[in-house]
């Protein structure tokens, strides 16, 4: 039976993943969090030792914090185990670490594990490819009041899809955190806006706006189960993949 280890096990996502995995008949090898104490479920310990967890697991799932990424990658490399990374708020240095580690173990990294969001990204890429930069692209997201990073990983994933469709680099064209006298919108920019409040699991809307008309496509997550299901499916898919870096496209057949 597949043994899943969960980094960030005591968090909102860690607990949702443990529940989905157990309902699917998989074994939870254990979990880590910052404190490293307690139980994830009766008999399933939470520790602060990523290497011990990696050694006991067939695959690791990480929904924790960017600051813990390096230790989690080191543990997976030492134990030669694949890892699915769902943690968001990653910066270019984190992506460089993932690229480097993916030469030694299979790694799936994604800002969103749900089927719906990944299909939305494919649609956004197609729309951006067909419409020229008379069409302004804006990405609006809303999440619960506890979320600590912005824009969301999903908003960035959708921005990357739009940039791919346009044949441009997102880093050179993104407009984030507008405030005050910002000047007019740059032609070809991809804009981001983040709202926070209440218990929203994750809403994303992509707006393509031209003179006189507007296309709006989006996704609303009604709960975290959709992310947990995708994470468990992705982790199972990752076992047996060759060393390399992956996203959800292969898992979902998109
Ligand atoms: N890709 C996707 O589809 C999704 C991604 N996410 C992302 O997943 C991440 C977690 O989200 P969520 O569960 O809501 O957040 P929580 O804050 O509920 O959980 C984060 C967990 O990580 C733990 N943690 C903190 N530091 C460490 C560490 N050094 N080592 C191990 N664990 C640590 C925290 O422990 P402690 O409480 O002790 O600090 C906590 O248990 C976020 O980045 C979020 O954006 C969320 C949903 C879907
Ligand atoms: O923090 C969350 O909750 C979520 N984070 C991910 C993100 O940053 O996009 C995915 C999902 O929207 C929920």
TrEMBL record:
<comment type="pathway">
    <text>Amino-acid biosynthesis; L-lysine biosynthesis via DAP pathway; (S)-tetrahydrodipicolinate from L-aspartate: step 4/4.</text>
</comment>
<dbReference type="InterPro" id="IPR036291">
    <property type="entry name" value="NAD(P)-bd_dom_sf"/>
</dbReference>
<dbReference type="InterPro" id="IPR000846">
    <property type="entry name" value="DapB_N"/>
</dbReference>
<comment type="similarity">
    <text>Belongs to the DapB family.</text>
</comment>
<comment type="function">
    <text>Catalyzes the conversion of 4-hydroxy-tetrahydrodipicolinate (HTPA) to tetrahydrodipicolinate.</text>
</comment>
<keyword id="KW-0220">Diaminopimelate biosynthesis</keyword>
<feature type="binding site">
    <location>
        <position position="33"/>
    </location>
    <ligand>
        <name>NAD(+)</name>
    </ligand>
</feature>
<dbReference type="GO" id="GO:0005829">
    <property type="term" value="C:cytosol"/>
</dbReference>
<keyword id="KW-0520">NAD</keyword>
<keyword id="KW-0028">Amino-acid biosynthesis</keyword>
<feature type="binding site">
    <location>
        <begin position="110"/>
        <end position="113"/>
    </location>
    <ligand>
        <name>NAD(+)</name>
    </ligand>
</feature>
<feature type="active site" description="Proton donor/acceptor">
    <location>
        <position position="143"/>
    </location>
</feature>
<protein>
    <recommendedName>
        <fullName>4-hydroxy-tetrahydrodipicolinate reductase</fullName>
        <ecNumber>1.17.1.8</ecNumber>
    </recommendedName>
</protein>
<feature type="domain" description="Dihydrodipicolinate reductase N-terminal">
    <location>
        <begin position="3"/>
        <end position="112"/>
    </location>
</feature>
<keyword id="KW-0963">Cytoplasm</keyword>
<dbReference type="InterPro" id="IPR022663">
    <property type="entry name" value="DapB_C"/>
</dbReference>
<feature type="binding site">
    <location>
        <begin position="153"/>
        <end position="154"/>
    </location>
    <ligand>
        <name>(S)-2,3,4,5-tetrahydrodipicolinate</name>
    </ligand>
</feature>
<feature type="active site" description="Proton donor">
    <location>
        <position position="147"/>
    </location>
</feature>
<keyword id="KW-0457">Lysine biosynthesis</keyword>
<feature type="binding site">
    <location>
        <begin position="86"/>
        <end position="88"/>
    </location>
    <ligand>
        <name>NAD(+)</name>
    </ligand>
</feature>
<dbReference type="GO" id="GO:0009089">
    <property type="term" value="P:lysine biosynthetic process via diaminopimelate"/>
</dbReference>
<dbReference type="InterPro" id="IPR023940">
    <property type="entry name" value="DHDPR_bac"/>
</dbReference>
<dbReference type="GO" id="GO:0019877">
    <property type="term" value="P:diaminopimelate biosynthetic process"/>
</dbReference>
<dbReference type="GO" id="GO:0008839">
    <property type="term" value="F:4-hydroxy-tetrahydrodipicolinate reductase"/>
</dbReference>
<feature type="binding site">
    <location>
        <begin position="8"/>
        <end position="13"/>
    </location>
    <ligand>
        <name>NAD(+)</name>
    </ligand>
</feature>
<feature type="binding site">
    <location>
        <position position="144"/>
    </location>
    <ligand>
        <name>(S)-2,3,4,5-tetrahydrodipicolinate</name>
    </ligand>
</feature>
<keyword id="KW-0521">NADP</keyword>
<dbReference type="GO" id="GO:0050661">
    <property type="term" value="F:NADP binding"/>
</dbReference>
<dbReference type="GO" id="GO:0051287">
    <property type="term" value="F:NAD binding"/>
</dbReference>
<feature type="binding site">
    <location>
        <position position="34"/>
    </location>
    <ligand>
        <name>NADP(+)</name>
    </ligand>
</feature>
<dbReference type="InterPro" id="IPR022664">
    <property type="entry name" value="DapB_N_CS"/>
</dbReference>
<comment type="subunit">
    <text>Homotetramer.</text>
</comment>
<dbReference type="Pfam" id="PF05173">
    <property type="entry name" value="DapB_C"/>
</dbReference>
<dbReference type="Pfam" id="PF01113">
    <property type="entry name" value="DapB_N"/>
</dbReference>
<dbReference type="GO" id="GO:0016726">
    <property type="term" value="F:oxidoreductase activity, acting on CH or CH2 groups, NAD or NADP as acceptor"/>
</dbReference>
<feature type="domain" description="Dihydrodipicolinate reductase C-terminal">
    <location>
        <begin position="116"/>
        <end position="252"/>
    </location>
</feature>
<keyword id="KW-0560">Oxidoreductase</keyword>
């Amino acid at each position: 039976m597949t043994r899943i280890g969960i980094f960030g096990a005591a968090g909102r996502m860690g607990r949702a993943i443990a529940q989905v995995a157990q309902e699917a008949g998989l074994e939870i090898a254990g979990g880590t969090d910052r404190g490293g104490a307690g139980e994830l479920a009766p008999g399933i310990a939470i520790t602060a030792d990523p290497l011990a967890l990696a050694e006991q697991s067939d695959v690791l799932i990480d929904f924790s914090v960017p600051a813990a990424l390096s230790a989690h990658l080191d543990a997976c490399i030492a134990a030669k185990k694949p890892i699915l990374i769902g943690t968001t708020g990653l910066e270019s240095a984190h992506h460089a670490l993932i690229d480097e580690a993916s030469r030694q173990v299979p790694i799936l990294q994604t800002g969103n594990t749900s089927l719906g969001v990944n299909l939305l990204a494919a649609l956004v890429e197609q729309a951006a490819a067909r419409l020229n930069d008379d069409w302004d692209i804006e990405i609006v997201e809303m999440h619960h009041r506890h979320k600590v990073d912005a824009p969301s990983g999903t908003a960035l994933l959708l921005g990357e899809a739009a940039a791919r469709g346009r044949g441009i680099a997102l880093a050179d064209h993104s407009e984030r955190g507008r405030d005050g006298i910002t000047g007019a919108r740059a032609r070809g920019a991809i804009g981001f806006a983040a709202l926070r409040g209440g218990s929203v699991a994750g809403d994303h809307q992509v707006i393509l706006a031209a003179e006189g008309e507007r296309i709006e496509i989006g996704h609303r997550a009604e709960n975290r189960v959709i992310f947990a299901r995708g994470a468990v499916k992705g982790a199972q898919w990752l076992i047996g993949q060759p060393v390399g870096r992956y996203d959800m496209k292969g898992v979902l057949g998109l």
